[in-house]
Amino acid sequence: MKGTYAIGRAPGGAALREARLMSVLDFLICGGLTAAGLVLSYFRLRRRGVRSGIRLGAWSLLPLAAYLTGTVTLITRISSAVAGFAGSFVFSPKTWFGVVLAGMAAAVLLASGGIPLPGRRRGRKANAVQAGAQGATGAGGRAQIEKGTGKIAKPGKRGAPAAADDDLGDVEEILRRRGIR
To answer: What is the number of domains present in the chain?
Structure first.
């Protein structure tokens, strides 16, 4: 008996007593919610029918099931951790300096044109291709770009289909016969 301690004298004994008290309190709350729900489900069964009463009875069993599986303890720990984080976040000048710094970084990034996307063309080449694309259109109003060079082809006649657009030539011919084009 020399190495054993009573709960009151053991290191961390206050925490153990508090955990037991919380466990009893959790049981009383969850058991009370389950009991109240079962009583209400009985009255609902009488008024609205068996199906409605059984459904409420099933929902009423969930608080006691949460206590027995330890989910209530988990939820208590998570909410305590979130509250502790929020408290340290709100009252910490270091944290607010970090928030301000992140906001400044986002503002500078947006002012510089944002994040470059991999598929986007950059620089003068893109502007030249876009400017040339407005004048050089082939059959169907699309820009004709020469393969491999990135340069715009010279505009062709509006009615003459391009060699690559043989299928579209048939469509244009049908449209002309019908008087649409």
So the answer is: 2
